[in-house]
């Protein structure tokens, strides 16, 4: 069963740092693309924060590019997001997403999965 479990959220003051982690079940291949989205308070849609694609390329939002670093540990099938110099506008529910799963034949097939999220609150 596909499962993504986030951890590492919390409350920090502006300028602080947090490191989020996303652990994927074996059903989600370590070679799948995985990344992070943010849902702002009030639940108004989800915006991309950073995503690492299957070929290793990374897309980040303009606000994340200079402050957040996405990384992977394929041996543990996890993705992490190091967030530095956090600002109040970074507050929200951070959700992990993946874009494929492992087939019985050992390949991958496209499908989007979401975790339940971890809350990040940044105070001024």
Question: What would you say this structure looks like, in words?
Answer:
Strand 5 (46-52) and strand 6 form a beta hairpin. With 124 residues, this protein is mainly β. Strands 2, 4, 5, 6, 9, 10 and 11 form a seven-stranded mixed beta sheet that branches. It has a four-stranded antiparallel beta sheet with strand order 1-3-8-7, with no helix packed on it. The chain contains no helices and eleven strands. It has strands at 4-7, 10-13, 18-24, 34-39, 46-52, 58-60, 68-73, 78-83, 92-102, 108-114, 118-123. Helices cover 0% and strands 54% of the residues.
**Residue windows where pLDDT falls under 50 for at least 5 positions:** none
Q: Specify the biggest β-sheet.
A: 7 strands, mixed
Structural class: mainly beta
Q: Could you give the distance between the termini?
A: 40 Å
Order of helices and strands: EEEEEEEEEEE
- Computed Rg: 14 Å
The average pLDDT score comes to: 94
Helix content: under 10%
Estimate what percentage of residues fall within beta strands. over 45%
Number of helices: 0
**Total E-strand runs:** 11
Shape: elongated
